[in-house]
Every structure is written in C-alpha cells, then in structure tokens.
Amino acid sequence: MTSPMDVLLSRASTDRLKDPAPAGAQLEQILATALRAPDHGRLQPWRYVIVQGAARAILAEKVVASTLRVAPQTPQFNLDKRRQRMATMPMTIVLGMHLRPEHKIPLWEQEMSVGAGAMNILNALYAEGFGGIWVSGPITEDPVLAAEFGFEAPHRLAGFLFVGTPDAPLPAPSRPDSAGFMAMWDGTPAVFAQDRNNAQ
Ligand SMILES: Cc1cc2nc3c(=O)[nH]c(=O)nc-3n(C[C@H](O)[C@H](O)[C@H](O)COP(=O)(O)O)c2cc1C
User: Which of 37, 53, 92, 176 fits a 20 to 30 Å CA distance from 149?
Assistant: First the structure.
C-alpha cells in the first residue's frame, strides 16, 4: 500500500488526461479533503464549480471570450488550441474564492486557504489514481468570467483544475534538495542555500 508520505512526495501534475474523472461519492470525498484546509476564522472560502459533459463546450466558449477581453491580440491559433483543450478535458473544476474583504481576517489569508484546499484536491486525486493540474493565466483575473461561474466581485477565481485519469504513468517528479529551503535560525536573518545557488 502506498503510504501518505509516498503520495505527498510522488504526486505530479499532468494535463494528459483521459476518462474517467472521479464521480459520485468518490468525487465528493475528494472535494471533502479540500474542506479540511486550514481556514483562519472559519470563513470557508472554498467553492468548486464542476464542468463536465456538454457544459465543457460552453466553458470553452466563455474562456475564449474572456481571453479576447484580457488579451485582444491573441492569435487565432492559440484561441483554437485553448478552446479545444477546455472542450475536451474529462473534467474541469473551477476554483472559486468566496472572499470577505471587510473581514478582520486579511484577504491573503482567505486566498491561501483556497490554495491549500486546491492542493488537498490534487493530492487526493493522485491518491485515488486520478491526475490533474492547476492552471490559471490572465483570464483568472477577469471579473466577467468569474461572474459567469457565480463569483461576482469581490469573489474571484483562483484558476482551474483539469481532472481525469493520466493517459500514461507519470514520471517520478524531480525534487529539489529540501536542505536548500530550510535554515536553523540563530537570531540573524536566515540565508538559504537555494538562494545562493540561484544567485550564481
Ligand atoms: C496558482 C497556480 C497557477 C498555475 N497556473 C499554471 C498555468 O496556467 N499553466 C501551467 O502550465 N502551469 C500552471 N501552474 C503550475 C502547474 O499547476 C504545476 O504545478 C507545474 O506544472 C509543475 O508540476 P508539478 O505539480 O508536477 O510539480 C500553476 C500553479 C499554481 C499553483
């Protein structure tokens, strides 16, 4: 049996996805893992819009229209590619952020909670034998598109999860040495090996 640590260490993103996507009780359970994300103030900012079947063609047209709003010069080839991708993914989960800008919990903390929820979904998908990838782009900032999914400002999008079954085994992901990203604090500002490497 794969241990939870193996799942966390070996998960990788992929957009090479075929049917099936999770359904029914299995999908509900995967989404339930997102609702276990840390959530300061219990504001429950996570929202998920599931797009499948015939709705994918509508999603594709809305995404193309949004792309033209935010980047009117986008070449036709790119628009066609994007339309095709959106219309054929087995499932897309639109990540919504139900935000409360007036609340004493800062917005960034609310947004981080949505990010943590999305990460739980990616891990849960992988643990259950599915695959996925989180994608975004400038359309994620388009308030018109967000409203079309039900997220009127101040609510926003956090991107899209493409979901399905990987069409080939995922290669083991390369992982940087974790030592480069940690430091033992001695009272002076931490210096990370990773940043020394990047500075060269
Ligand atoms: C908020 C967010 C937005 C992202 N947007 C995109 C995107 O638009 N296109 C893309 O190829 N990858 C995007 N990524 C990166 C992929 O989701 C993924 O992390 C990356 O391909 C590395 O794969 P890995 O998860 O296997 O390390 C995004 C990641 C995050 C966290």
Answer: 37
Domain regions of the chain by residue span: 4-175
DSSP assignment string, 94-140: EEEE---TTSSS-HHHHHHHHHHHHHHHHHHHHHTT-EEEEE--GGG
**Which of 122, 136, 161 is the best mutation target for the ligand 1 pocket, counting ligand atoms within 8 Å of the beta carbon and taking the most?**
136
Going from the Cα of 188 to the center of ligand 1, the distance in angstroms, rounded, reads: 33
Whether 99 has a pLDDT exceeding 80, the answer reads: yes
Instruction: Report the separation in Å between the CA atom of 13 and the middle of ligand 1, taken as the mean of its atom positions.
Output: 8
Name 91's Cβ contacts closer than 8 Å, sequence gap at least 6.
21, 22, 50, 51, 52, 162, 163, 164
CATH code of domain 4-175: 3.40.109.10
Atom of ligand 1 nearest to the CA of 11: 26
Task: Please tell me if the CB atom of residue 48 comes closer than 6 angstroms to any atom of ligand 1.
Answer: no
pLDDT digits (tens, 9 = 90+) for 112-125: 999 999 999 999 99
